[in-house]
UniProtKB/TrEMBL annotation:
Keywords: GTP-binding, Nucleotide-binding, Repeat, Ribosome biogenesis. The gene is der. This is GTPase Der. Associates with the 50S ribosomal subunit. GO terms for biological process: ribosome biogenesis. GTP 1 binds at residues 9-16, 56-60, 118-121. It comes from Ectothiorhodospira mobilis. The lineage of its organism: Bacteria, Pseudomonadati, Pseudomonadota, Gammaproteobacteria, Chromatiales.
Length: 437
């Protein structure tokens, strides 16, 4: 599981600037999914071969109030779920009463805290750091987030403070066999009903694999000769009869499961329709680049009119999901549950596709001959060749000149063209554009 780092600090100390620095790589990728909302509060980054999750809490003011008003509930939950807290202070403002209040609050959580002194550009870092020793959180680590200074050193220190980083992320995940599946959906969508039904029917492989206990978050099982590993960070298996409250729902845990998975089975509740939280969670799944199968659950006992309403609702509110397979199921009765696995296999295969440079370049040439890129300042943008830059999800890299001037609509045209020609159902794809040679 990726460890979780929470960014804490009063407003304006530079949390979101640091967040963007640490998660920036994602913005270089163009997802072909108009309408997708991006979450700027949760992100992922890498240090060395190690991946981590980052949460920008944003919610501590440090003003002298009660704990409840001082912290948004989400902020407190994020700190509780974090493996490490980065507490940002401002080297220009110096130590404030609000910083002291936050330091006191943080002590109550008993989490490891690193004190990070931001905005050290244009000030003497040692002099600025001196007064912050009074917080009792050790030596402040100086950075200038806006200028990218000190970030690498900070992250080396961070790495030393994170638990369970024995294996680089990829090796850790690869220990688990088969196709790794995460079940995601908002509370009451039917996740635990579905998971318990599936695991009730299948042969658990738990005893074969070291480190698997009843409480493990990784649950290998076999179905029709294919091995899968279920990723259960939210404890859905143990909750069969207990109602999860909305309060206990954890975005962090959901994201950890998504990050560890190959394929996400996303549950929508047909009785409730599509809610904002669905779009929000789906945005995270797709930003993580995960293959996806949509299970519309509680399909039992719905009238034909109600079913039409659900289909229309989905098409209207989740247009960016048109690449995924939909399955209409009843976790309660088991109807349609078996069909999920064919869709999971197809999505996994599509996400792991390998396409040669020759084939991609031929596709690019066809796409361009059917629909030319636009003229920019009298010159036609030239696209020369394409190669595959990654898998899970597939990344297609297009080389040419002036590619930075390609309009979004043309990028989406190319992305759709590749998707259709390569028949990539169930996986997001990413396009990168490079100019030169
Ligand atoms: P947040 O409210 O804690 O998320 O703070 P922001 O990231 O929005 O930053 C608040 C302001 O501080 C913005 O105007 C940033 O440009 C500025 N800022 C952030 N980091 C630095 C830095 O390293 N040096 C300087 N001089 N300004 C910074
Ligand atoms: P979770 O919070 O996503 O894990 O949802 P649960 O599995 O706890 O299910 C929430 C409620 O929906 C429970 O009362 C279930 O019995 C009910 N439920 C789950 N799946 C179905 C289904 O396919 N049909 C119907 N009618 N109810 C379901």
């Amino acid at each position: 599981m990726k460890p979780v780092i929470a960014l804490v600090g009063r407003p304006n100390v530079g949390k979101s600037t640091l967040f963007n620095q640490l998660t920036r790589s994602r913005d270089a990728l163009v997802a072909d999914l108009p309408g997708l909302t991006r979450d700027r509060q949760y992100g992922t980054g890498r240090v060395g071969g190690f991946g981590y999750m980052l949460v920008d809490t944003g919610g501590l003011s440090g003003e002298a109030e009660t704990l409840d008003t001082l912290m948004a509930r989400q902020t407190r939950q994020a700190i509780q779920e974090a493996d490490l807290v980065l507490f940002l202070v401002d080297g220009r403002d110096g130590l404030t009463a609000a910083d002291e209040a936050i330091a006191t609050e943080l002590r109550g959580f008993g989490k490891p805290v690193l004190l990070v002194l931001n905005k050290t550009d244009g000030v003497d870092p040692d002099a600025a750091a001196a007064e912050f020793h009074a917080l009792g959180l050790g030596n402040p680590l100086p950075i200038a987030a806006a200028h990218g200074r000190g970030i690498a050193g900070l992250m080396q220190t961070v790495k030393g403070h994170l638990p369970h980083l024995e294996d680089p992320e990829d090796e850790e995940k690869e220990r688990w066999p088969g196709i790794r599946i995460a079940f995601v959906g908002r509370p009451n969508a039917g996740k635990s009903t579905l998971v318990n039904r599936i695991l009730g029917e299948e042969r658990l492989l738990a005893s074969d694999i070291p480190g698997t206990t009843r409480d493990s978050v990784y649950v290998p099982f076999e179905r029709d000769g294919q091995v899968y590993t279920l990723i259960d960070t939210a404890g859905v298996r143990r909750r069969a009869r207990v109602k999860e409250t909305v309060e206990k729902f954890s975005v962090v845990k959901t994201l950890q499961a998504v990050e560890a998975a190959h394929v996400v089975i996303f549950l929508l509740d047909a009785r409730q329709g599509v809610a904002e939280q669905d779009a929000h969670l789906l945005g995270m799944v797709l930003e993580a680049g995960r293959a996806l199968v949509v299970a519309v659950n509680k399909w039992d006992g719905l009238t034909p009119e109600a079913r039409d309403r659900v289909r229309a609702d989905v098409a209207l509110k989740l247009p960016f999901l048109d690449f995924a397979e939909y399955r209409f199921i009843s976790a309660l009765h088991g109807t349609g549950v078996g069909d999920l696995f064919g869709a999971v296999q197809r999505a996994h295969e599509a996400a792991a596709v390998k396409v040669s440079t020759g084939e991609l370049t031929r596709l690019l040439e066809r796409a361009v001959s059917e629909h030319q890129p636009p003229l920019v300042r009298g010159r036609r943008i030239k696209l020369r060749y394409a190669h595959q830059g990654g898998r899970n999800p597939p990344v297609f890299v297009i080389h040419g000149n002036q590619t930075e001037r390609l309009p979004g609509s043309y990028k989406r045209y190319l992305s759709n063209f590749f998707r259709q020609q390569l028949q990539l159902v169930g996986t997001p794809i990413r396009m990168e554009f490079r100019t030169g040679e």
